[in-house]
Amino acid sequence: MTRFAGKVAVVTGGAQGIGAATARLLAEEGAAVAVVDLSAERAAGTAEEITAKGGTARAYGCDVADYDAVEAVFARIAEDLGGLHILINNAGITRDNLFFKMPKADWDAVLTVNLTSAYNCSHVAQKYMVAQKWGKIVSLSSRSALGNRGQANYAAAKAGIQGLTATLAIELGPFNINVNAVAPGYIATAMTAATAERVGATAEDHQTEVAARTPLRRVGQPEEIASVVAFLASEDASYVSGQTLYVNGGAR
Ligand code: NDP
Asked: Cα dihedral sign for 55, 142, 204, 13?
């Protein structure tokens, strides 16, 4: 399939996990992919994997929480790869703690990296998209947006992504820009491995426990989120906008 031929896609947090799987899939289907992560060295692994398979990708270092840095790196990407058509707001962090023990710094860090970065990247990207009257923005929310013990900061940020998505769809729709979000359940990545470690479990035991209460009886894999992100970034979803799609193995 070449759903993304001629398109330039930016994937933030693309060094590993869901971002890396998404970058690989978009590239497989013809996109020139800018893999953005905190350092270009970290992003290079994904970019090299893509180019080794004959795809087009470049690695960029950028803290997406920094508006000026985003503006500068997106300008470089547009110049290097020939435009900016698709934005995947994927970079994210967790700093879990029960609310009464949650330091303000951890509240701020999670809101900044998970939500303000989506403002930064979307705000810069929409300038390119409005000018060309074509764009796709897909952001990573989370099932935790519905509430999750120990994640007041993360849940607030991921619920914020849903509100941002619904509103940008209204404001940017007239410029032929689709804006959607994906809300994954438990996906086996470094992020959930770190959660397991925090609760004193191995990644494997933690996954077994989560799988037992998930209707599909297993946890998700990064590729199972990437395929939904790619759908929303493609013309297959041309009349879908303002939506948050839960991808969580059937959990309610
Ligand atoms: P990972 O932690 O595996 O990957 C996130 C990537 O984002 C890392 O490479 C990280 O770099 C990078 N990153 C963090 N902060 C910044 C920043 N300020 N600027 C640029 N890059 C940054 O996460 P996942 O793949 O698991 O998750 C991807 C997205 O999906 C996140 O938004 C997450 O909240 C969301 N999600 C994940 C779920 C899951 O179960 N895994 C469930 C629901 C939502 P570094 O490692 O150097 O810090």
From this structure: positive
